[in-house]
Amino acid sequence: MEHSITHRGVRGNPDGRFERHNRQAVDDGWDLGLPDDLPPLRTSVQVDASRSIITRNDSPDVPFDRSINPYRGCEHGCTYCFARPGHSYLGLSPGLDFETRLFAKPDAAKLLEKELRKPSYRPAPIAFGTNTDPYQPIETKWRVMRQCLEVLDAFNHPLTIVTKGHLIIRDLDVLSSMARRHLVHVGLSVTTLDRDLCRLLEPRASVPAARLSAMRQLVGAGIPVTAMVAPVIPMITDHELERILEAVAGAGAGGAVYILLRLPHEVKDLFADWLAQHFPDRARHVLSLLEQQRGGRLNDPRFGQRMRGQGPFAQMLSQRFRLACRRLGLNRDRGWAVDCSLFKPPPRAGDQLALF
To answer: What is the per-residue pLDDT across 189-222, written as a single tens digit (0 to 9) for each?
Structure first.
């Protein structure tokens, strides 16, 4: 038996890779008159009591060394999400648990302010949305991202945001103010222009038209936006590459990047199951093309290779992207860098005023 999984990205809840035992439902032939389906899965949110909020990294193929994720798990439920395996560290499943059993960090803004006030702190752009989306639906209630934005605004601290959530428009007031000080850059993800395919791939994320609308509003408010064509999935979305780039250029994006589908750890089996369910006619071909670009495997975690792949298909994809961007005038202006020189902790109540 399976739960009712309408509007969910995957249909299973496999055990994480760190569990000692793996459970699998099988039909043992006994008809006990049980219902066909378990009750629908509902989203639950627990408090994450983290004592620090900024995560550091030294990865050579990402343009940031620190990030903040206001939430663990993501209600968007993107089938392909490379963050799914993170739920295994919590003793939960990268499957349905990842998109239904979420963790919010309500103390994030307080922890952030504490870190920024340390005498040893040196500013550099803080990246949001590098793992789970800060503008997923539960942000409407919890407002963790909004609170972090307000802290960074007060400190004149730069940040970057990656999202596929139209909810970012709620924060136009803060973002536009920060943009005037060159403190913010937004990456907005557009995976497909096909609404029906979007609902299969990213069941609770904003539809493509809403993302393009958000892009227009962000650009109209003076906020620099890069389009993230990510992930590109062979035989599923790769044929849309040029049309997506045309759409985001029309919406005002100044630049674009693309990322080839990544399938780390448990995501490999989850995505293969999704293919078998929705695209059985081409499932094997899709996986074969991915293997050809990943050195015979479905995932290549090596720095410099994991985002782009290698081989004829990957080279063709890179050339198509480069030519389309040139034709559309994307990526001409690389002046998207945020300004770190304005950083200054604001005075707290009771602080002695600086002498003139």
So the answer is: 999 999 999 999 999 999 999 999 999 999 999 9
pLDDT tens readout for residues 159-191: 999 999 999 999 999 999 999 999 999 999 999
**What's the rounded Cα separation, in Å, for the pair 210 and 216?**
10
Whole-structure pTM value: 0.88
Calculate ∠ Cα 184-189-190, nearest 5°. Answer: 140
Q: Which amino acid type is present at position 283?
A: A
Omega of the bond prior to 208 within 30 degrees of 0, cis? Answer: no
Q: Which residue from 63, 73, 54, 64 is spatially nearest to 10, judged by alpha carbons?
A: 73
CA distance 194 to 202: 11
Segment 290-310 mean pLDDT: 77
- Structural domains in the chain? 7-15+39-328 (3.80.30.30)
Residue 248 to residues 160, 238, 252, 256, 289, Cα–Cα distance (Å): 19, 16, 6, 8, 27
Written in H, E and C, the secondary structure of the chain is: CEECCCCCCCCCCCCCCCCCCCCCCCCCCCCCCCCCEECCCCCEEEECCCCCCCEECCCCCCCCCEEECCEECCCCCCCCCCCHHHHHHHCCCCCHHHHHEEEECCCHHHHHHHHHCCCCCCCCCEEECCCCCCCCCCHHHHCHHHHHHHHHHHHCCCEEEEECCHHHHHHHHHHHHHHHCCCEEEEEECCCCCHHHHHHHCCCCCCHHHHHHHHHHHHHCCCCEEEEEEEECCCCCHHHHHHHHHHHHHCCCCEEEEEECCCCCCHHHHHHHHHHHHCCCCHHHHHHHHHHHCCCCCCCCCCCCCCCCCCHHHHHHHHHHHHHHHHHCCCCCCCCCCCCCCCCCCCCCCCCCCCC
